[in-house]
Structures are given as C-alpha cells and as structure tokens.
Specification:
Elements lengths: L2 E9 L7 H4 E2 L4 E10 L5 E9 L4 H4 L1 H10 L9 E2 L14 E2 L4 H9 L5 H31 L11 H21 L4 H6 L5
Parallel strand pairs: 1-5, 5-6
Antiparallel strand pairs: 1-3, 2-3, 3-4
Length: about 190
C-alpha cells in the first residue's frame, strides 16, 4: 500500500461567472474540489486541488490514475492506493486502486451460488481491510480541517490565492508529520503502535 486517496471539498463564494462551474448540487453549495493521497506516515504524497466543485472525484483523480499506471508495477508488490467508492477501479486500474465494496455488492455476492464460501470470505476480509485503512484518510482530512482553521470557512474567490493557501496547508501538514513523526491516529489506523 503506498497511500490512501481522499476527496476534499472546500467552500468559497465565487463570482457570478464561476457560480455554475463550482456549484456542487450534492453538497448544495459552491466548492473547490481536491483529491489528496495520504501516505502511511500521514504525509500528503500527492494532491490535485482547486478544481471546480461540480467535477466528480473520479474525474479529478484522472492525473492520479495516469501516474499510477506509469510508475507503479503492481506485479512487484502490493503497491496500491486505498480509495472510497467514488474512485474508478475497473480495467487496468484494478491493479492500483483498492476500494471497499458497496453494501449491495456484498449482499449480491452472498446470494450468488457461483461464488464460493472461500471467495466470499476473502472479499469480505479485503473489504474490511480497505475500510480500516481508509480511516487514515478520513483522519487526515479531519486533521487538516481541525488544524488549519482557514479551511473551515469560505476560501478566497481568487483561484491563485486559493492555490497558495492549499499549497501552504499541504507543506505545513507534511512538515508537522515529519517533525512530530506520524500522528497517533495514523499509527492506530495502520495497526502500528510505535
């Protein structure tokens, strides 16, 4: 496992020209969307941020998919990214993206006569492992919003200013992870105690 991907939506008040591009109907507000990949030590390894809020997380993560397929050789080891169900993992991406199954998929597998008990048990174990590892990303996102109060309120309208704020938050977060080592909640999520 090389990281855990997490989407992030940050609110801001766009001008009238940008209103439609940044409006997210699911969240009922205007947001800039980002995708972050957290490493096992809590650092942010990759970020693609400041995207229009109406873009789906899977679309925003397209550069991540390309990077994974170009640089990770999954045959050499289990180098994958854990992600939530919004991310793609079909076709070539199944080697790189590890995500929990949706609850209806587990129910269908349990009722499918063609699925062996061993396969069902393996998939349930894999599902639970992914949910557990994904918790580190949720804690990471919570940590960012808790530690950097600027992310809780509306961000500036100017895209360059938003980019500077997001870059500074990522750098400060990573600095803290390196200096203070891995925060306890990451160690706990990854099953490490020291």
């Amino acid at each position: 496992m090389i990281g855990v991907a997490a989407p992030c939506d940050l609110s801001f008040q766009p001008d009238a020209c940008e209103q439609n591009a940044y409006y997210n109907a699911w969240l009922a507000g205007t947001f800039c969307s980002s995708v972050l990949v957290f490493g096992p030590d809590g650092r942010i390894l990759w970020v693609y941020g400041n995207n229009p809020g109406n873009c789906h997380d899977s679309t925003i993560a397209e550069p991540l998919y390309c990077l994974l397929m170009e640089t990770c050789d999954s045959d050499d080891g289990p180098f994958r990214i854990a992600a939530d169900s919004a991310f793609k993992n079909s076709g070539d991406l199944t080697k790189y993206i590890f995500k929990p199954l949706k609850s209806d998929a587990l129910a269908r597998m349990a009722n499918d006569a063609d699925v062996s008990v061993e396969e069902l048990a393996r998939r349930i174990t894999q599902h639970r492992s992914c949910v557990s590892v994904r918790q580190a990303a949720e804690w990471g996102m919570g940590s960012l919003q808790k530690d950097f109060r600027i992310l809780r309120g509306p961000l500036p309208v100017d895209a360059a200013e938003r980019r500077q704020i997001l870059d500074a938050v990522v750098l400060l977060h990573n600095f803290r992870c390196v200096v203070a080592r891995c925060p306890k909640n990451y160690r706990r999520a990854l099953g490490r105690t020291s």
